[in-house]
């Protein structure tokens, strides 16, 4: 069975026959058969060459790269193995037609905001007084369908997330003093955690899209642009509350994350190696977690839910079935 590999130690990664071989700085070797690799995350300083990249391309392996600060640097997206001219034309049409694009974007925000609401409801039922935040978000959710353009829609989304993030000070059982979301770079421990966890979800969306015939650069909520897979941002938006946010809540509330997990001198910007590894391990376990799908009547993993979202979007774009975003049903 294929799986994700996370490489943290510095060294060299190269091809050896039908395997990848990782050689650490002490010269120790670890062989990884290529048929077991679904995707690879390079989390440390790594030397590799075009021979390995070509090997990845031949086997359809996506590779995601992170820098010293655990910030996402970029991904290697192999030559597309599943292509459809018909779908590409329809995908572009759904973007260039303002009504079609806005309709898909509204559906994405509807799903994402519903999952945000369910997170608040979950913790409200466990001794946290979050009713006022829930009411405000529910009020804003009713306005989503009234949005006249993407800018207005993103305004509602931003207000929903602002209220949601204010509630984190109640959800998390630590003194976090979280007032606003700050990126590029994060300015405190919570923002660093959000950036890291969100990026992990984003890279999973990249890999899921690669397994379909969708073009990753044509998106609906986020504006397509150079040097990014903007459709992955759209898909990730729906799953961040379930995967990234709940992971953060759990890690803080189990005291697996504290001030010692960050480099204080860098304004909590840098996760230490041990913490980053622990977060990735917890994340990977969650992606493998299964649940009984209410429509398919079989067990599927969280990771497969993301791929199913891509297939639902394809059916919508082709006019086969209206897109209904993933919403937490349990």
UniProtKB/TrEMBL annotation:
Protein role: CRISPR (clustered regularly interspaced short palindromic repeat), is an adaptive immune system that provides protection against mobile genetic elements (viruses, transposable elements and conjugative plasmids). CRISPR clusters contain spacers, sequences complementary to antecedent mobile elements, and target invading nucleic acids. CRISPR clusters are transcribed and processed into CRISPR RNA (crRNA). Acts as a dsDNA endonuclease. Involved in the integration of spacer DNA into the CRISPR cassette.
Protein name as catalogued: CRISPR-associated endonuclease Cas1
PANTHER family: CRISPR-ASSOCIATED ENDONUCLEASE CAS1
Gene3D superfamilies in UniProt: CRISPR-associated endonuclease Cas1, C-terminal domain, CRISPR-associated endonuclease Cas1, N-terminal domain
Leading EC class: hydrolase
NCBIfam families attached to this UniProt entry: cas1, cas1_HMARI
HAMAP family: Cas1
Subunit and partners: Homodimer, forms a heterotetramer with a Cas2 homodimer.
Short name of one Pfam family: Cas_Cas1
EC number, UniProt record: 3.1.-.-
Cofactor or coenzyme needed: Mg(2+); Mn(2+)
BP-aspect Gene Ontology terms: defense response to virus; maintenance of CRISPR repeat elements
UniProt: Mn(2+) binding residues: 157, 222, 237
GO molecular function: DNA binding; DNA endonuclease activity; hydrolase activity; metal ion binding
Keywords assigned by UniProt, alphabetized: Antiviral defense, DNA-binding, Endonuclease, Hydrolase, Magnesium, Manganese, Metal-binding, Nuclease
Family indicated by similarity: Belongs to the CRISPR-associated endonuclease Cas1 family.
């Amino acid at each position: 069975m294929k799986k994700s590999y996370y490489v943290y130690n510095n060294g060299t990664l190269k091809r050896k026959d039908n395997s990848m071989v990782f050689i650490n700085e002490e010269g120790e070797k670890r062989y990884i058969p290529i048929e077991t690799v679904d995707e690879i995350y390079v989390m440390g300083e790594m030397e590799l060459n075009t021979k390995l990249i070509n090997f990845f391309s031949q086997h359809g392996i996506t590779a995601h790269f992170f820098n010293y600060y655990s910030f996402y640097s970029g991904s290697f997206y192999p030559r597309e193995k599943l292509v459809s001219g018909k779908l590409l034309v329809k995908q572009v049409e759904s973007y260039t037609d303002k009504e079609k694009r806005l309709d898909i974007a509204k559906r994405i925000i509807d799903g994402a905001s519903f999952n945000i609401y369910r997170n608040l409801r979950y913790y409200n039922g466990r001794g946290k007084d979050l009713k006022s935040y829930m009411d405000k978000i529910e009020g804003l959710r009713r306005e989503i369908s009234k949005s006249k353009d993407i800018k207005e829609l993103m305004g509602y989304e931003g207000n929903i997330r602002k209220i949601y993030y204010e509630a984190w000070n109640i959800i998390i059982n630590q003194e976090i003093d979280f007032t606003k979301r700050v990126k590029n770079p994060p300015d405190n421990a919570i923002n660093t955690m959000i950036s890291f966890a969100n990026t992990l979800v984003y890279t999973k969306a990249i890999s899921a899209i690669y397994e379909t015939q969708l073009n990753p650069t044509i998106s609906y909520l986020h504006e397509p642009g150079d040097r990014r897979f903007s459709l992955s941002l759209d898909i990730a938006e729906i799953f961040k509350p379930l995967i990234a946010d709940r992971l953060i809540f759990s890690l803080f509330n189990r005291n697996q994350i504290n001030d010692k997990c960050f480099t204080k001198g860098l304004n909590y910007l840098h996760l230490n190696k041990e913490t980053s590894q622990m977060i990735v391990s917890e994340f990977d376990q969650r992606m493998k977690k299964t649940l009984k799908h209410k429509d398919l009547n079989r067990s599927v993993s969280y990771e497969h839910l993301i791929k199913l979202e891509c297939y639902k979007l394809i059916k919508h774009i082709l006019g086969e079935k209206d897109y209904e975003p993933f919403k937490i049903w349990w």
